[in-house]
Amino acid sequence: MPMTVRDPNDVAAYDEDMAKTWVGPPPTLRTRIEIRDYDPEWPRLFEREAARVRSALGDRVVRLEHAGSTSVPGLPAKPIIDMVLELPDSSDEPAYLPDMEAAGYTLAIREPEWFEHRVFKGPDTNINLHVFTAGSPEVERMLRFRDWLRSNPADLELYLRTKRELAARDWKYVQQYADAKSAVVQEIIARADAAAR
User: Fold this and answer.
1) How many other β-carbons are positioned within 10 Å of the β-carbon of residue 101?
2) How far apart are CA 161 and CA 167, in angstroms?
3) 52-68, pLDDT tens digit by residue?
4) 144 close to 191: Cβ distance less than 8 angstroms
5) In this predicted model, which residue has the larger pLDDT, 1 or 39?
6) Is residue 131 within 8 Å of residue 53, measured between CB atoms?
7) Sign of CA dihedral 156, 157, 162, 164
8) Which pLDDT value is given to residue 184?
9) Which residues contact 120 (CB under 8 A, 6 or more apart)?
10) End-to-end CA distance of the chain
């Protein structure tokens, strides 16, 4: 989720932004977003990919976590495993990109202005491997959101309802759908933050 959320209905702005951040042509949706019932295989798929990433990068992995909706037991989700990887310096691509590519991963997104964020796609499992520099506040935000949904059924239901409503709409890019959820995500995180104080 970008720091400044775009208007999800402004397709021209997405066309411009996506061309800047994607390494290669940005993928467009051909069908509506698919929300599947929770699959108990998702954690196993995460563990398999995590082992592959750790094997490729060794002690450069500062932290590697399962994030996003597939990491919340019982929550229906897009069948894409979100992973969050912290490295010593995500902007130092020569320190990890060749090893990731050798392991079959493809760099898909480069957002240096947003926490030096990178996204890799996997060799055989549909993943979004989000890469940040260790200590990034965005990693903490993502994991706080995950942990809150795991233990708060009312907010889990609110989030699911929002996801289903937005998935029923036609979007050109998945990022539009993600950005359209931002207000609800921020509302839920505010509750998580308040409870942590």
Assistant:
1) 14
2) 10
3) 999 999 999 999 999 99
4) no
5) 39
6) no
7) positive
8) 97
9) 100, 105, 106, 107, 108, 127, 129, 131
10) 24
Supply 196's token pair.
Answer: 């942590």
Q: Which amino acid is at 168?
A: A
Q: What is the pLDDT of residues 27-47, one digit of tens each?
A: 999 999 999 999 999 999 999
Residue 2 has pLDDT above 60, yes or no: no
pLDDT at 190: 96
Question: How far is C-alpha 75 from the geometric centre of its chain's CA atoms?
Answer: 15
At residue 96, φ and ψ (nearest 5 deg) are -145, -25
How far, CA to CA in Å, does 113 sit from each of 16, 117, 125, 134, 179? Answer: 15, 8, 28, 16, 17
Using the 8-state DSSP alphabet, how is residue 172 labeled? S
pTM value is: 0.94
For residues 127 and 88, give the distance between their C-alpha atoms in angstroms, rounded to a whole number. 22
Task: Give me the DSSP letters along 112-126.
Answer: TTTTTEEEEE-SSS-
Looking up tokens 């698919």, which residue turns up? 34
